[in-house]
Specification:
The protein is of the alpha+beta class. The chain contains 24 helices and 23 strands.
């Protein structure tokens, strides 16, 4: 049997090449994503930056630590505080007896024609990086500064949010920040709170002094631990989490697409050989011999293609990593490591999928008798097997049941990325398995109008697509997965983004939203000027904070909170309340949402505030869950040290919006704030404005769609190469060469439309589930289907399908392959 397979290979080389290409590209995709995911597990060791030369850094309490006891076990739960505490004055006084103490301060600086990420510090802390002057001198007056980098030179005057300053010196940039150094006195006025300080003393003596002073939660940092005093010390771990999520999603989608396409391609390749199997059965071959022959061929192709795919994946992964860094999806240090397990996993996955796809398709050919096989070699009379019926029905039922259960028990889970990314895969597989049942009615529906036009072309298109069910289903499969994935993922993110924007719009009753230019918030003089424009009662100044609650005695949950006075809150916001009233909020109460374990109005709940203070607060009102952005509300007294980072302004009746906007801009001119209308604020804060999320999503889809596009062209070439006899018969029946080619192009377009319809059906089912979940969560939003994107994808698929079918058909006809009965 192996020798027979080798002799027949020259007559079916397009099938061999098609299977090889599909498998090698699929393995390359899995290997590249696996290498990227493996390399995103560990960040390089990073030492201290701003305090690399500091002897000892003392930092105030910045974490909340709670001990829990369950089943005779004591566990410690920690969360970072939203408002870290400064070092207590008693501790500072004790430390001053040991040596020199330098208080550190960091605050945002906004300068015209300067970098967007400028940060201010006292000049006395520059030596701890260390920064060294390379031009000019140190600042001595309140209006003098030293800057890092080469964006300004000594003598330049800079307009900042805190007035005009003069550059008197520059230091070389160290790469981790763009710094502006003020005098210590000026820095203390701009940033009164100091969260950490540097002590020039023995570390042991510093620790002893902190313990003796009762500094609860105060940390003494030395050595590499000093990096925890840098700005955003967890940025590497956060970057790893984001990369793991991005590459994990990309790997899951890519793995599904590659396995789906490879299995479909190998099954179609075996199904194309039914005539050959029938002849072999007539010549006396046993079913076992046919299966062993197919397994041997699949093993040979699988080994060669998987090895080639691993080489391609290893070559492509570094380019993928470089692109991710260039687009800001990964930190600058991200590179592909020397991991080998992703290539092993990709190789064996490709080989296993090739064997399973070929064996599953050959099982039926091996079971049929010789005469029956010869009859079935011409027409697809029974394209559905019991296995496909059972598997397709089971997956479809699983998708329906899990959707209903999620809608009944936890509709919020349907809004999670891991859910709306994975659910389409389940339905795509189910519809693909049941495709032979759906192809015939879909083909007759799509070709209904062309079949009624003059001439026999439309009728031939309809009957060819309906009769060749396996061929139509195999060619439509890449289109199905392409349209379904694009429609589901893009539609889900657009629908969810629209829902969040709708929530924000409905919650805000203000005419304007004023936001500070940095993270230091508005000072009191600026707030007074804003209140004067809005009339006082129509101005709600709020702060970002957080509260922490211990649920079920074991889980320490962080909930975002806004701190605002009750009267202005009721005047400028329309909270989606399920119970209670916003006006009942006071210093002894809190507004929560229905996600909280305790959410009964009037009950008390124990929480930790943003600075770690423990309080027992009464629940004044309960909001609906929504899309997850309905956080808690407290009063400013329960958000100590939280700077005002948003001011909602509602104008009085009859006020001129244009004049009010001008007055508000004048009020925040010195602090660099932004004045936005309600609609501008909603657009600015909508999820669609997140470029990283958008680019990451398009990376996932782009890789998957590129692969399915190549697979579509590959499958079309395989399908067309198997129809040379049929096309020659049409030529002998009197059809011209251009008529045959137009027929082939029309059939390709019909199959693409069928795949598009099935893919749109899958995407629609997924989006309807999400839309239903939003309705149950009290969010009224329209269902967003990316028709323009789906149309562009269908046009691209149609162009690929037509080219990949017409070109080989034209070559076959031109080569004179016109012996329809040649054995």
């Amino acid at each position: 049997m192996p020798s027979t397979a080798l002799r027949t290979l020259r007559h079916r080389w397009p099938t061999f090449v098609g299977s090889f290409v599909a498998l090698s590209l699929g393995v390359a995709l899995i290997a590249a994503m696996g290498l990227a995911l493996a390399s995103a597990q560990d960040a390089p060791a990073r030492g201290p930056e701003r305090f690399a030369a500091a002897p000892v850094v003392v930092r105030g309490q910045d974490t909340l630590t709670v001990r829990t006891s369950t089943d005779d076990r004591t566990r410690i739960r920690t969360r970072r505080l939203a408002q870290p505490r400064p070092v207590p004055d008693a501790v500072v006084a004790k430390l001053r007896r040991l040596g020199t103490v330098v208080q550190d301060r960091s605050f945002a600086v906004h300068a015209e024609r300067g970098p967007a990420d400028l940060v201010g510090h006292p000049w006395s802390t520059a030596a701890f990086a260390p920064y060294e002057l390379d031009a000019g001198r140190a600042p001595r007056a309140a209006d003098e500064v030293v800057v890092s980098g080469d964006w300004a030179r000594p003598g330049a005057r800079l307009r900042t949010g805190d007035g005009t300053v003069r550059v008197v010196g520059t230091v070389a940039g160290l790469g981790f920040e763009n710094a502006v150094f003020h005098t210590d006195a000026r820095a203390a006025r701009l940033s009164p709170r100091s969260l950490q300080l540097v002590v020039d003393a023995d570390p042991g003596a510093v620790r002893k002094a902190v313990r003796a002073s009762g500094g609860s939660g105060v940390r003494v940092l030395t050595g590499d631990a000093r990096r925890h005093a840098d700005a955003d010390p967890d940025r590497d771990s956060e970057a790893l989490t984001a990369m793991n999520a991005m590459f994990g999603t990309a790997g899951g989608v890519s793995g599904f697409v590659s396995v789906f396409v490879v299995a479909s391609t190998f099954a179609f390749a075996v199904a194309q050989r039914r005539r050959e199997f029938g002849l072999l059965r007539t010549a006396g071959a046993t079913p076992g011999q046919i299966r062993r022959m197919v397994a041997a061929e699949a093993l040979a192709v699988g080994v060669l293609a998987s090895a080639a795919g691993c080489v391609l994946g290893a070559r492509g992964a570094p380019r993928l990593a470089a692109w991710a860094v260039q687009e800001g999806l990964a930190p600058r240090w991200f590179t592909i490591g020397d991991h080998t397990w992703p290539c092993h996993a990709a190789f064996w996955t490709g080989l296993l999928v090739a064997l399973c796809g070929a064996l599953a398709a050959s099982w039926r050919a091996g079971r049929t008798g010789p005469a029956e096989a010869l009859r079935e070699a011409s027409v697809d009379t029974r394209p559905m097997t019991w296995g496909r019926w059972l598997a397709g029905s089971a997956l479809l039922a699983t998708g329906a049941v899990t959707l209903v259960l999620a809608l009944v028990t936890a509709p919020g889970e349907l809004l999670q990325r891991k859910t709306y990314v994975s659910r389409p895969m389940l339905l795509i597989t189910a519809v693909a398995l049941l495709a032979p049942v759906l192809v015939r009615p879909s083909a007759r529906l799509v070709a209904w109008l062309p079949a009624r036009l003059p001439g026999a072309g439309g009728m031939l298109v309809r009957e060819n697509a309906a009769a060749g069910v396996r061929r139509t289903a195999a060619v439509a499969a890449p289109v199905l997965v392409t349209v379904a994935l694009a429609g589901s993922l893009l539609g889900a993110t657009a629908t969810l983004g629209g829902a969040k924007a709708t929530e924000a719009r409905e919650r805000t009753a203000a005419d304007f939203v004023v936001a500070p230019a940095g993270d230091t918030g508005f000072d009191e003089p600026t707030l007074k000027r804003i209140r004067a424009v809005g009339g006082g009662t129509g101005v709600a100044a709020s702060s970002s904070s957080a509260v922490y609650v211990l649920e079920d005695g074991v889980a320490l949950i962080r909930s975002d909170a806004r701190a605002v006075e009750p009267g202005p809150l009721a005047a400028t916001a329309r909270l989606p309340l399920a119970a209670g009233k916003a006006e009942d909020l006071d210093d002894d109460s809190i507004i929560v949402n229905e996600e909280w374990a305790e959410h009964t109005v009037g009950d008390r709940v124990d929480v930790w505030l943003g600075d770690g203070t423990r309080r027992s607060l009464r629940i004044a009102a309960v909001m609906t869950t929504g899309t997850g952005d309905n956080g808690a509300y407290v009063t400013p007294r329960n958000a100590p040290a939280a700077p005002v980072d948003r001011v909602d302004v509602r104008l009085a009746a009859g006020a001129d919006p244009a004049a009010a906007a001008s007055d508000l801009r004048e009020a925040v001119r010195t602090s660099g704030g932004k004045v936005l209308t309600k609609d501008e604020w909603v657009r600015a804060t909508s999820p669609g404005a997140d470029r990283t999320t958008r680019v990451g999503l398009f990376m996932v889809l782009g890789i998957a769609l590129l692969y399915t596009g190549i697979s579509l062209a590959n499958t079309m070439v395989m399908a067309t190469s198997d129809r040379t006899r049929e096309l020659t018969v049409l030529r002998l029946a009197g059809a011209t060469r251009w008529q045959v080619l137009r027929l082939v192009a029309a059939e390709a377009l019909t199959v693409v439309v069928i795949g598009g319809l099935l893919g749109t059906l899958v995407a629609g089912l997924n989006l309807v589930g999400m839309w239903g979940a939003l309705g149950l969560l009290s969010v009224s939003t329209p269902l967003v289907i990316p028709w323009a994107t789906l149309g562009a994808i269908l046009c691209a698929c149609a162009a690929l399908a037509v080219a990949a079918s017409v070109v080989p058909a034209g070559l076959a006809l031109r080569a004179g392959r016109d012996a329809p009965y040649r054995p």
